[in-house]
What we know:
Oligomer: single chain
Largest sheet: none
Distance between the termini: 71 Å
Number of helices: 10
Radius of gyration: 20 Å
Shape: elongated
Order of helices and strands: HHHHHHHHHH
Strand content: under 5%
Structural class: mainly alpha
Amino acid sequence: MVRPKGIPDAEVLAEARRCFLRYGPGVSTETIAAGLSLSQPALFKRFGTKKALMMSALRPPPTPAWVVALDDGPDERSITEQLSGIVQRAGAYFEEVAPAMAILRASGISREEMLESYDVAPPVAAKAGLMAWLERARQRGLIRDVGLEATASMIMGGLLFHVFMSRLTGVAQVGPISPSYAEELADLLALGLNPEPAR
């Protein structure tokens, strides 16, 4: 049975994303349309081209949700607990974004094309949001006076390298960023950021 014509764009993009991630950039628009019980012309009427559909389905939002959540902190919890939460949310985001970016690049879409619709590239926005959170933590005495850019880069680097290694090697032990990995990384970060000097 054909679905109503009023299928929300979000549903269309979710199905397109699923198909691109499962089958790669060569998946046909007929396959995507069939998964929605739409005709291929109806799909093109909405998005114009397969490339436009792919870009809409796979590009990350301008400001990732985990970065938006940083605006609510830091709070009264221990710095280790807060960093662990940030690491888990950011890690889940990077695990979701990495394969999407790989599909876009495999399709021949350049980095410039991927970034042209953003005022600020999402990784830059993410780093700025993390630096702002760290600055607020410093002002509240939760962390010592450290280089904010280096600290934010280290946090993001620890996550991105984990995701990269998992995708590159396929080693089971690497796997997704688990709560235990997040806690271990947060422990190390908190030790280095501790405002009290080590004795």
